[in-house]
Amino acid sequence: PLGSSTGMPASRLSLQRVRHAYAEHLAVDDVSLEVMPGEVVCLLGPSGCGKTTLLRIAAGLERLQHGELRLGEEMLDEAEGHHVPPEKRGVGLAFQEAALFPHLSVLENVAFGLDNLPPSRRRARAMQWLEQLGMAARADTYPHMLSGGQQQRVALARALAPEPRLMLLDEPFSSLDARLREQIRDDTLHALKRVGAGTLLVTHDPEEAMFMADRIALMREGRVVQWGTPYQLYCQPQTPFVVTFFGAVNEWVGEVREAKVMTPAGVVAAPALAEGSRARVMVRPEALRVTHDGALMERPVGDVGIFARVVMAKLLGRSSLLHLAVPDEKGQEVHWHAQVPGVFLPRAGQSVALQLEPSQCFAFPA
Ligand code: ATP
C-alpha cells in the first residue's frame, strides 16, 4: 500500500444489526457485515433490495436508525447517538451519477480532495490517477465536455486519488460500454489493491461482483441471504434464489431415492434431503455436457449419457446455447437449455448425447 494521504491507515469497516426504514417501508432489515482492509466486498442483489441504502449509511449520508457502524476502533455512527459526518470519515465515494464539480477542470476535480498534500504534489498525484483511468489526455477539459462514461472514470479517479482508508462505490461502471467496462474494472481493481483500502461496492451484476469481490453479500428485500466468496455463492448456493440470481437454470421436480434424484439428463446427488421426499433440482445450462452422439459411442461402456434432440442452436460468441428436447422417464419431452464452450452448432433435429457435470446441479426441498 502507498499509505493514504488522509493519514489514516486502512481499517476494518463493521456494520452491526443495521436496520433502515423510509416511512413504513423497511429498506434494510438487520444486516451485519464487515470489510477488512484491502478487501473488496460487493453488495449484490436485485433492484430495490437495499444496497444503495446500506452504502449511504456507510458513507454517513443516511443517519443510522438501528445498529452500529465502526471503522477500525472508531465508532462512526450509533442509532440516536454519535454521528461522524461524511466529510470527516476519510472515505472515498463514487456514485452512479459522477457528480463532478462543473466549474472545475477534470484535473482540478481530481486534485480537489488532495488538500493534505503540498500544492506542488497535488497536480502530480491527480495526473497519476487520471493516467490510471485513461483520462490524462482530458485533464484540462471540463465535465460537460465529457461523455457519461468518461465522467464516471474521472469520478473514480477523484475518489481514489486521496487513497482513502475505505472506498464506497455505487454502480461505478454502469455508464461504460461493455468493452471499456472490462478494462476499467480491471484498472480499478488494481488501483484498489494498490491503495490497500477496504471497498464496499454496490452492483446488480453478478458477473461484476464475481470479478471484483473477495466476498459478496447477496441481498434480497433488505436482508443478506448469503455471504461468502464468489466460489461459495456460485458453487455452494444455499437457496434456489441464490442459484437463479446467477442466471436461469433448468428445473426438475423428482423424488429422492438413495440420496439421489433422477432427472431427464441424468442423476443428481441430493445428500441433504430425506429419502422419499420431493426435490427441486436446478441444473445450470453449463452443467450439461453435450457431444455429438457418434463421439460418445467411442467411449467405454458405462460412460454413456442420455440422448436429446436439438431444437435450436445459437452462437453467443465464447459459448453456444442449445435448446434441447430431452425425453423423461414417461417418454415425454422436457425442454432444457445447455450452454457449451466455443462454437458447437448441431443442426435442429440432430441427436446429441448429454452428461451432467455434478458440481453445477443443486437439489433443494420442493
Ligand atoms: P437499485 O439497484 O434499484 O438502486 P437498491 O438495492 O440500491 O436498488 P435502495 O435504493 O437501497 O435499493 O432502496 C431500497 C428500498 O427503499 C426500495 O424499495 C426503495 O424504493 C426504497 N427507498 C430508497 N430510497 C428511498 C427514499 N429516499 N424514500 C423512500 N423510499 C426509498
UniProtKB/TrEMBL annotation:
The keyword Nucleotide-binding applies. It comes from the Bacteria. Pfam families: ABC_tran, TOBE_2. CDD domains: ABC_Carb_Solutes_like. One of its GO terms (molecular function) is ATP binding. Residues 13-246 form the ABC transporter domain. The keyword Membrane applies. InterPro entries: AAA+_ATPase, ABC_SmlMolc_Importer, ABC_transporter-like_ATP-bd, ABC_transporter-like_CS, ABC_transpr_FbpC, Mo/tungstate-bd_C_term_dom, NA-bd_OB-fold, P-loop_NTPase. Signal peptide: none annotated. Keywords: ATP-binding, Cell membrane, Ion transport, Iron, Iron transport, Membrane, Nucleotide-binding, Transport. This is ABC transporter ATP-binding protein.
